[in-house]
Design a protein that fits this description.
Oligomer: heterodimer
Structural class of chain B: mainly alpha
Number of helices of chain A: 13
Low-confidence stretches of chain B: 1-31
Order of helices and strands of chain B: HHEEHHHHHHHHHHHH
Domain ABC transmembrane type-1 (chain B): 103-315
Helix content of chain B: 55-70%
Mean pLDDT of chain A: 85
Largest interface: A-B, 115 and 126 residues
Strand content of chain B: under 5%
InterPro entries (chain B): MetI-like, MetI-like_sf, UgpAE/MalFG_permease
Structural class of chain A: mainly alpha
Subcellular location (chain B): Cell membrane
Largest sheet of chain A: none
Membrane topology (chain B): Multi-pass membrane protein
Strand content of chain A: under 5%
Radius of gyration of chain B: 27 Å
Shape of chain A: globular
Family (chain B): Belongs to the binding-protein-dependent transport system permease family.
Low-confidence stretches of chain A: 1-13
Helix content of chain A: over 70%
Number of strands of chain B: 2
Order of helices and strands of chain A: HHHHHHHHHHHHH
Number of helices of chain B: 14
Shape of chain B: globular
Mean pLDDT of chain B: 83
Distance between the termini of chain B: 41 Å
């Protein structure tokens, strides 16, 4: 508040530059917003166009509105495989993020609240693995799973999705910040076992932060393309990302572009809803990442 | 509130005799010793098992495989034997023109794309943080929106949006005399860099913006009293203070660039003539795996992981040292 007070006295004298800077600042922000939104707007407008009218008329305005038919086509094409893809994406993301968050919370709690020999080395190994991109693991993982003959199954995508080294890193920070040592000590004094102390005291205290870990893991799995595209051959096992890319690549063999465009638009909606409704959580996660 | 009551419970130096063995000595908040290590490993175990099987074991397997070569005796399969061939797969990887070319291509792409994206993200964060900005919340959400669209699906979208005859951009551009085909071989790297920039600028902007918000009020006050405003304030005060966030976003971006796969792979799938199926190193390696030379692909994976680790870790260390000297 004092900042604003301190800034005030100089203000009236420079009203002219103030207006100019306001125009420049908001002008650039507005332009960037347009740049961000135009592709998404195009996606929406195109998804509403009747087949055959995609490339006629203005690309950024409606003509021959037929959204309902397009949606119906997306869901009925190839025996309704699109809804299977959505369900698969939801399954991989929900299960992967839930299990991943719980495991990360336990590991982060252990790394923050217990001191034992080799603790820092364990933490450093986990941290180092954050510095190698996931796809680098995906290729060798595929080789290993192919050797063990467990590719092309739900497990081949689910199991790797449950591992989140970055989640462990965040959980360690969160546990250190939000679970007081005194409280754990008190619980132990009262005779609570270690499991009980964790599930009844530490976990609830960490839960707002865990929503963040869950959300980030959920988005990472939902958005993943390389891992499922390597692991899965059967369309009925694939998530929506792999499926839509498949439809796009069948464009040349006569699959309507409206299918992938409308499908892309539809697959945006669930995450959009999640982001808008959980705004404060993803901001918290980003902040935690930046304060090292 | 609960912490006050807990301090009270924990502070008496004389715990009841019956539980003496169960608690660590008063005044030492963390549990040490054998029991503590045992409990800690109990909590670590589930993650550790998955981490070891899903991340460490594959890398180990790849390293192991990279030292062997499968030799086929007959023309049609015949008998196969696996031989230890030392570093020959690595030599083959470094001798593979396509693989090396793809690494150089992606490094060059990153050298342009990462600074552009982070510069833009920093600019937007500073603008949003400035006194003149209006509609902050709306802009923040808008810039973040592309993050909600998976990279693969965004690439599908752009694969239509950038086609010369369909794009809403090429028409107006050619009206003012700029005639480009964004999906022609010479433009494809730019278009791919642009897809990533479109998708991730807002994400990076939010990290930097969040860091800007944590600058203490007193610092800004002192700067204002010294007459520091506008761009000078941004350059001399704000940017140095959000350095950790800039380092973090840079490391994430280096890692992101190293894993470039989705965007070019989608364009290859969409049969855009300008994109080579060996565009990025990961595409090379995945293709090699499909072709059946898993040992060479393993060596390539190891090389890629090492390069990425060296680049991201090196950048991190370099900045820590620089930060310590400053």
């Amino acid at each position: 508040m004092s900042v604003i007070q301190a800034g005030r006295p100089t203000r009236p004298a420079r009203r002219g530059t103030d207006i100019a800077s306001k125009a420049v600042v908001n002008g650039i922000l507005g332009l960037m917003a347009l740049y961000t939104l135009i592709p998404l707007w195009w996606l929406f407008v195109s998804a509403t166009k009747a087949s055959g009218y995609l490339y006629t008329g203005a690309p950024l305005w409606f003509s021959h509105f037929d959204l309902v038919t397009n949606i119906r086509d997306v869901f009925s094409f190839e025996n309704g495989v699109f809804s299977t893809w959505l369900a698969n994406s939801a399954l991989y993301s929900l299960v992967g993020a839930t299990v991943g968050t719980l495991l990360s919370a336990m590991a982060g709690y252990a790394l923050s609240k217990f001191s034992f020999r080799g603790r820092e080395s364990v933490f450093n190994v986990i941290l180092a693995s954050v510095l190698i991109p996931a796809p680098m693991f995906a290729l060798p993982l595929f080789l290993l799973m192919a050797k063990l003959d467990i590719t092309n199954s739900y497990w081949s995508v689910l199991l790797p999705s449950c591992v989140s080294p970055f989640g462990v890193y965040l959980c360690r920070i969160f546990a250190a910040a939000s679970v007081p040592d005194e409280l754990l000590e008190a619980a132990r004094l009262d005779g609570a076992g270690e499991q009980r102390t964790f599930f009844r005291i530490a976990l609830p205290l960490m839960s707002p932060a865990l929503v963040t870990v869950f959300l980030f893991q959920f988005v990472a799995i939902w958005n993943n393309y390389l891992l499922p595209s390597l692991m899965l051959n059967t369309p009925s096992l694939q998530p929506v990302t792999v499926g839509l890319v498949q439809w796009r690549s069948e464009f040349a063999s006569g699959v309507s572009p409206l299918l992938s465009i409308t499908g892309a638009f539809l697959s945006l909606i669930p995450l959009l809803v999640a982001f808008v409704s959980l705004q404060r959580f993803w901001r918290k996660g980003l902040t935690a990442g930046s304060v090292k | 509130m609960s912490s006050t009551s807990s301090t009270r419970t924990a502070s008496p130096p004389r715990p009841a005799p019956a539980v003496t063995r169960r608690v660590s000595p008063a005044g030492r908040p963390r549990r040490t010793g054998r029991r503590s290590a045992l409990t800690a490993s109990g909590f670590l175990a589930p993650f550790a098992v998955l981490f070891l099987t899903m991340m460490v074991a594959p890398i180990g397997y790849a390293i192991y495989q990279s030292f062997f070569t499968v030799r086929r005796a007959g023309l049609f399969g015949g008998t196969q034997s696996t031989e230890f061939t030392g570093l020959s797969n690595y030599a083959a990887a470094f001798g593979d023109h396509d693989f090396i070319a793809s690494i150089i291509r992606v490094i060059l792409l990153g050298c342009v794309q990462v600074p552009v994206m982070l510069g833009l993200a920093l600019l937007l964060a500073l603008l949003l943080d400035s006194r003149s900005a209006r509609l902050r919340k709306t802009y923040r959400l808008t810039f973040f929106l592309p993050y909600a669209l998976p990279g693969a699906i965004a690439a599908v979208m752009w694969s239509f949006l950038l086609v010369k005859d369909l794009s809403p951009f090429t028409g107006p551009l050619s009206h003012i005399g700029i005639d480009v085909d964004f999906l022609s071989p010479s433009w494809v790297p730019v278009s791919i860099g642009h897809m990533i920039t479109w998708g991730w600028t807002g994400y990076n902007m939010l990290i930097i913006y969040s860091a800007l918000q944590t600058i203490p009020a007193e610092v800004m006050e002192a700067a204002a009293l010294d007459g520091c405003t506008g761009w000078r304030l941004a350059w001399a005060v704000k940017i140095p203070l959000v350095r950790p966030a800039l380092v973090l976003t840079t490391v994430f971006s280096i890692i992101g660039t190293a894993q470039l796969y989705t965007e070019p792979a989608v364009l290859v799938g969409a049969r855009i003539p300008g994109v080579d199926p060996k565009f990025s190193p990961i595409m090379n390696t995945a293709l090699g795996m499909d072709m059946g030379d898993q040992n060479l692909a393993s060596a390539q994976s190891v090389v890629l992981a090492l390069i990425t680790l060296v680049l991201s870790f090196g950048f991190l260390k370099y900045n820590q040292r620089k930060g310590a000297m400053a």
